[in-house]
Design a protein that fits this description.
This protein is α/β, with parallel strands linked by helices and 570 residues long. It has 23 helices and 16 strands.
């Protein structure tokens, strides 16, 4: 095993101060953010709901942070009145701003300018009351937050016209979940997850208590209960799925598998129609309208209910965002007969909210988008039906890719290989290195991992690093050879100076080309140059021809031997 501490430590995933694990961030802008006990208590209240809080007392710095924030981040703003009047017009149009709250002593004056900004939820002069409103709104917001959809096909246009191709993120997302559910887990990875979460929630007493309870009392049969509970488990797992945070999904894989098995055990026995209501941005709704009749999937778990919403849909929700968001009701028909790989189930008995009649679908469940219609009472109604991976348009594509990854349980080497094949070079390299660190010196996968790392870094044009991995491969083979007291079979077949399979192919074709030329010359000499009464006669009468023939014979023997050696190289 070779230590590569620069890539294996989990701190690699926290290089950025703001590389946090939840979806939402609260931005708090106030001229004098006091460090008194009152502000500390308010911050602790807020962190029980939105853990990641960024505090600013400078408007320009705050504006810069908001503008440069990741599009995967959803921002909730808490701003004092005077600063709000300056900042809100500058950033209100940004898509990742979810809600704005104003703390002001001059409510009446602030209400005048605030009318033009629908994301502004309320203005209050009492800070504690305002925080209570933020917490109340956020609980509802997180339950109905916009889903992240991926469509199966992408339409492209060029000089030859319009064409439809398979969307690679759709395939990758399906394969990633498939591999994670089959990838062996260990205590080291579970402990790393706990360390990552403790780092994320440092100082958050509520979530640290939840973490300790999780660490001490979690069991596979409680997976669904933990998922439905309002805690770090739901927030970080769903955020990882939505943003395709591969490493957090990797660390969560054993718990993802537990949830999968519980859903299998509770799988619905008959067809059901379920519902989900939420707000959706106009842009996202427009995209879905273009996917009508196509297959789509949801990156995260999909939470629905068997209870159809009342007709005055979203009456309890602030409708001031109608210029940028639309009210949407999903109606989903799900038949258990079509399910083979991604179960769904009524999880009411496991839920903290058993009266909601919740039906949960696995991440990356695939649906056919059938209809999108508008209803005056209920807003947009989107009709979908659950599909199988064996759907005609999916079977050939996903079947072939999954076949390459094998069936049954897989190891970290196979997972790394899948990431490499899907073009995720940096992530693949990271897990190959993790694989190297976990394998013993005499494990055959160690040599394959070194070889693949040399190839990946070569493809990234990082030739110095590629040579380093080649050297590690050579050193590992020599070590095994010395321990075994004989030449290792892999080393004996490895040609000096051949660093990768691509290089090897060049050597092979070059040698074949030279062999063909030599053979042609030999045939020409034999056929067209006269020979005396035997070999001795040639030697005596024409020593030049004799020497040429002798050289040709030697060259032929050399190339035949070399070709046999190359053909034996794997």
């Amino acid at each position: 095993m070779m230590e590569m501490n620069d890539m294996s430590d989990e701190n690699h995933f926290f290089k950025r101060e703001d590389n946090h694990l939840e979806t939402f961030t609260l931005i708090w802008l106030e001229t004098n953010i006091n460090c008194d006990q009152k502000h500390e208590d308010i911050e602790e209240m807020l962190r029980s709901t939105i853990n990641h809080i960024k505090k600013f007392d400078d408007l320009d710095k705050c504006k810069k942070y908001i503008e440069e924030a990741s599009k995967d981040d959803k921002l909730v703003l808490l701003i004092s009145g005077q600063l709000g009047q300056q900042l809100v017009p500058l950033i209100h149009q940004l898509q990742h701003i979810s809600a704005i709250y104003i703390y002001s002593e001059d409510k009446e004056n602030d209400k005048i300018w605030a009318r033009n900004f629908p994301k502004l939820k309320t203005i209050k002069s009492d800070l504690e009351m305002l925080v209570s409103r933020i917490i109340e709104d956020h609980k509802h917001r997180s339950n109905t937050e916009e889903l992240v959809w991926i469509n199966m096909h992408t339409t492209t246009s060029d000089a030859e016209g319009v064409s439809t191709v398979v969307n690679s993120p759709f395939v990758f997302s399906q394969l990633l979940i498939d591999c994670l559910l089959r990838l062996t887990s260990n205590e080291m990875d579970k402990n790393e997850l706990i360390r990552c979460c403790k780092k994320e929630y440092e100082g958050n007493h509520v979530e640290l208590a939840n973490l300790n309870e999780f660490q001490n009392e979690y069991s596979p049969e409680k997976a669904l209960w933990w998922y439905t509970r309002e805690s770090f488990f739901y927030k970080t797992l769903n955020a990882a799925l939505c943003t395709q945070n591969i490493h957090m999904m990797f660390l969560y894989r054993s718990f993802l598998t537990d949830t999968y098995h519980q859903l299998q055990q509770c799988q619905s026995k008959c067809s059901v129609r379920v519902y989900r209501r939420q707000q959706m941005s106009i842009d996202a709704l427009y995209d879905l309208q273009n996917y009508r009749g196509q297959l789509v999937s949801v990156k995260s778990f999909l939470s629905t209910t068997r209870r159809k919403p009342i007709t005055d849909f979203y009456k309890d929700v602030d409708t001031t965002q109608q210029n940028s968001f639309e009210q949407v009701l999903f109606e989903i028909d799900a038949d258990p007969k079509v399910v083979t790989t991604k179960p769904f189930a009524d999880i009411s008995k496991y839920s903290d909210f058993f009266l909601e009649l919740e039906v949960l679908f696995m991440p990356n469940s695939i649906f056919r988008l059938n209809t999108i219609d508008y209803d005056d009472n209920q807003g947009w109604i989107i009709g979908m039906s659950l599909c199988n991976d064996d759907e005609y348009s999916l079977k050939e594509i996903l079947g072939h890719m999954k076949k390459q990854n094998g069936i049954g349980e897989i190891n970290l080497y196979t997972f790394s290989k899948m990431l490499w094949k899907m073009g995720k070079f940096d992530q693949a390299k990271m897990y190959y290195i993790r694989c190297v660190n976990e394998l013993s010196d005499n494990d055959s996968l160690l040599f394959k991992a070194y070889e693949d790392l040399a190839e990946i870094t070569s493809q990234q044009n990082n030739y110095n690093e590629s040579m380093k991995w080649q050297q590690k491969l050579s050193d590992a083979e020599k070590k095994i050879s010395n321990n075994n007291g004989h030449v290792n079979s892999r080393s004996s077949k490895k040609l000096p100076g051949i660093g990768s399979r691509n290089t090897l192919r060049c050597y092979v074709f070059g040698f074949i080309f030279l062999f063909a030329i030599t053979l042609g010359i030999g045939i020409y000499l034999v056929k067209y140059i006269p020979v005396g009464n035997g070999y001795n006669d040639v030697n005596q009468n024409n020593p030049t021809i004799a020497n040429t023939r002798t050289g040709i014979v030697a060259l032929l023997e050399y190339f035949i031997s070399l070709t046999m050696l190359l053909s034996s190289y794997n």
